[in-house]
User: Which sequence fits this backbone?
């Protein structure tokens, strides 16, 4: 399908429209040939901008002259399927821009482009740009084996609406978007334009006044460990990612967005206020690139039945499915696997190990099915290559890289144990079962250990009561406000130091703590400076930063984000505020109303809600009215709910999102169709501390990894932390109602309800139907298939005991060995 996006194929497939034109209502006609011309010009402009950006990026890589903004863009640049989706959306958006500009020139007034185009013109635009194909509903396969595991893209999780929660769809809107022009331009786009009779403050000014905190002024959270913050980021990277445009140049005139403060798509630079705390040149802007639009939104939304407002893409699956380990597309998932054997493992680093334990593989792929990827992590000429994982942000900072490493090891540990229990499983079955279990671990840890500490007991009871089953009417999609504002609550928990601790939970004598800005994109520090264990101890054995009004965001994030040598660092607070406006999020009061919370009308009401006169007065001085306060800064300013680490607004929004994620997920671990009862019972023992025990050489940990304790108080030996009993996954192949389970020489099999499905080992191909079924009369419906040599030169390997169930007979294609198997529902793998 990728070939559809080439310019030549697109135009070759273009269906010419009739030239009778369309009537705009008062004499303006746009004939179909003009639409073709607009399409050609838009495609040429977008392709040219993409090409020039790639050239610039390669030059900077070769000269080691990258900027801080390049590191920010590194994990926002779309690749592979995402690049196809973004390119199509930008073809469409720019086509409509060109048509509207032409109409305005000849008609001298602004008009709605979609009102000027007739249905067949709109259809042609959608088809030529590729947006029509992207929005086509997929066909969902049914059957016990076909519906056994999640798809990597999560299509068909909901059978009636197959794209709900899947990757590469628009973020969900819980409230109508708030744009300056009503459809696409963010608030603050037009300088000095008044919103509710006041000009919005510059994001950098809000950051300077409300967020600014010196590194040495942060307050520690003595109740919660730094792992609470790290899990929040880990979880965030499982749920959402909105890509930038791949271009750093404007499409209309090729202006370099990094050298100007001009605001023109895709560029929305962050202006510097007068008397800035660090940046003295007010003609300088911090580079900022708008999130890419979703196909068929903005001024062409009516084509797909949407409101005419710009929407943003979530390139990840919405569900809690550990996509940061496995990827959210088939392509990425394939690249991450070890396909050299039938053990179901993920690929690991072939150059380095951590005292025999695994590291992530290096990303040294310059050109492949998954698109262009960078080959180094930019620190020096001898830098360690970036790691490769299911999420592109894996190298962002050391704590996050440590989590990726931990979960890679846990998958491979699970796969090895499952293969021992079920040697008749193929590598694919083993891989998928390990993936399924790891996804359940992620869900259990999030809902049992993490969320109650964040949103408090009351919100947990309101939004997350005991599970009552899957509800196909629930939309599990990630809300725009959740992705863009809510989960950024964790930014206020990040400490300015990355802690690395020894066996006694003291600063490591050889590899000590490092400032956060020295831990960005530094995979070499993990490999060369002590491995995983010191970082894990640092996360569970040191406190998180406490969000305190007046001491919100320290300088490592506000002044030195992705800082490279003398290059100007970014400001995370400003980025968050600018992103909220880019995505058209309504203001603070609108979200308070959405949650049924009191809304302040002015200074007095805001003082009562925030319980802080100084902070309320500063916000009113900046925004003039609570209606205009950006939702992120308003929400993080609220005092905590009881037992939580967020205020009432975030407790509501976060609780609602996780309610939808659980109830709208057909593969939720507590659903009796996902795991049988005995496996669900075994899964209840899952904990983050146990995962750490099983994949490091750490011997002592708190039983609850998110609670802070001063070593040795509250720490226990790993032998006292419960394990998940994987014997619940043993597939019983002893007795069946139909007698022996047929075993095929050089084959693998797995069972689902009353059926057995076969596959062949490498070098062999299947002959006959791959599935046999035990019928109600106690007989198999057909003979099992066979596995025959695929290549004449192939020599079957010796299995050295790993396949004891194989039986050699005179007719290996249909050899059957009497075995017993229980194919009842209680013992079969779901």
Assistant:
């Amino acid at each position: 399908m990728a070939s559809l996006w080439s310019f030549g194929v697109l135009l070759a497939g273009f269906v010419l429209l009739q030239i009778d034109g369309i009537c705009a209502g008062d004499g303006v006609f746009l004939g179909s040939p003009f639409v073709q011309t607009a399409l050609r010009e838009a495609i040429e402009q977008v392709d040219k901008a993409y090409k020039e950006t790639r050239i610039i990026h390669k030059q900077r890589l070769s000269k080691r002259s990258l900027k801080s903004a390049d590191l920010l863009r590194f994990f926002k640049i779309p690749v592979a399927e995402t690049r196809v989706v973004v390119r199509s959306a930008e073809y469409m958006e720019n086509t409509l821009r060109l048509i509207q500009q032409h109409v305005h020139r000849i008609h001298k007034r602004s008009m709605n482009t979609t009102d000027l185009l007739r249905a067949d013109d709109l259809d042609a635009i959608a088809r030529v740009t590729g947006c029509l194909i992207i929005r086509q509903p997929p066909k969902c396969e049914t059957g016990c084996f076909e519906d056994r595991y999640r798809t990597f893209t999560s299509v068909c999780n909901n059978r009636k609406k197959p794209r709900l929660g899947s990757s590469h769809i628009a973020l969900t809107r819980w409230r109508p978007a708030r744009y300056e022009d009503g459809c696409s331009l963010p608030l603050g786009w037009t300088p000095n334009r008044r919103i509710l009779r006041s000009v919005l403050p510059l994001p950098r000014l809000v950051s300077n006044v409300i967020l600014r905190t010196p590194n040495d002024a942060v307050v520690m959270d003595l109740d919660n460990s730094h792992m609470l913050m790290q899990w929040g980021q880990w979880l965030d990277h499982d749920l959402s990612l909105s890509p930038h445009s791949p271009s750093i140049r404007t499409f209309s005139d090729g202006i370099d967005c990094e050298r100007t403060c001009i605001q023109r798509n895709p560029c929305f630079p962050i202006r510097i206020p007068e008397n800035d705390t660090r940046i003295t040149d007010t003609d300088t802007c911090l580079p900022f690139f708008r999130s890419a639009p979703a196909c068929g939104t903005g001024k062409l939304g009516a084509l797909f039945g949407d409101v005419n407002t710009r929407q943003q893409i979530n390139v990840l699956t919405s569900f809690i499915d550990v996509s940061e380990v496995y990827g959210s597309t088939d392509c990425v998932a394939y690249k991450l696997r070890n396909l050299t054997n039938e053990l179901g493992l993920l690929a690991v680093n072939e150059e380095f190990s951590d005292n025999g334990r695994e590291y992530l593989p290096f990303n040294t792929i310059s050109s492949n099915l998954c698109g262009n990827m960078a080959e180094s992590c930019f620190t020096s000429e001898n830098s360690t290559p970036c790691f490769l994982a299911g999420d592109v942000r894996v190298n962002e900072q050391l704590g996050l890289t440590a989590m990726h490493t931990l979960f890679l090891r846990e998958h491979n540990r699970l796969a090895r144990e499952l293969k021992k229990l079920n040697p008749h499983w193929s590598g694919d079955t083993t891989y998928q079962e390990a993936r399924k279990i790891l996804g359940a671990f992620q869900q259990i840890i999030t809902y049992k250990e993490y969320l109650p500490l964040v949103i408090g007991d009351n919100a947990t009871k309101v939004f997350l009561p005991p599970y009552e089953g899957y509800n196909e009417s629930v939309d599990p999609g990630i809300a725009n406000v959740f992705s863009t504002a809510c989960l950024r609550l964790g930014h206020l928990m990040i400490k300015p130091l990355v802690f690395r601790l020894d066996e006694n939970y003291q600063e490591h004598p050889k590899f000590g703590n490092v400032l956060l800005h020295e831990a960005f994109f530094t995979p070499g520090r993990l490999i060369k400076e002590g491995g995983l264990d010191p970082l894990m101890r640092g996360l569970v054995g040191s406190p998180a930063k406490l969000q305190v009004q007046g001491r919100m965001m320290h300088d490592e994030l506000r002044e030195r984000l992705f800082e490279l040598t003398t290059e100007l660092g970014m400001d995370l607070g400003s980025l968050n505020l600018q992103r909220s406006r880019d995505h058209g999020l309504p203001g603070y009061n609108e979200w308070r109303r959405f949650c049924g919370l009191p809304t302040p009308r002015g200074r007095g009401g805001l003082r009562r809600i925030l319980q802080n006169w100084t902070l309320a007065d500063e916000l009113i001085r900046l925004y003039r009215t609570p209606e205009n306060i950006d939702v992120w800064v308003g929400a993080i300013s609220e005092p905590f709910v009881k037992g939580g680490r967020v205020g009432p607004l975030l407790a509501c929004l976060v609780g609602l999102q996780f309610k939808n994620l659980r109830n709208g997920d057909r593969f939720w671990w507590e659903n009796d169709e996902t795991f049988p009862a005995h496996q669900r019972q075994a899964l209840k023992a899952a904990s983050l501390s146990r995962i750490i025990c099983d994949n490091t050489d750490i011997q002592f940990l708190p039983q609850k990894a998110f609670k802070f304790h001063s070593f040795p108080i509250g720490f226990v030996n790993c032998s006292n932390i419960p394990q998940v009993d994987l014997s619940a996954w043993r597939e019983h192949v002893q007795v069946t109602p139909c007698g022996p389970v047929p075993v095929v020489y050089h084959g693998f099999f797995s069972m689902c309800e009353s059926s057995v499905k076969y596959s062949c080992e490498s070098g062999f191909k299947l002959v006959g139907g791959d599935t046999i079924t035990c019928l109600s009369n106690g007989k198999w419906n057909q003979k099992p298939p066979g596995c025959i040599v695929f290549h004449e030169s192939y020599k079957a390997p010796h299995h050295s005991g790993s396949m004891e169930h194989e039986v050699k007979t005179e007719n290996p294609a249909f050899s059957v060995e009497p075995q017993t198997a229980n194919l009842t529902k209680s013992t079969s793998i779901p």
The radius of gyration is 28 Å. Confidence is low (pLDDT under 50) at residues 1-31, 366-375, 796-830.
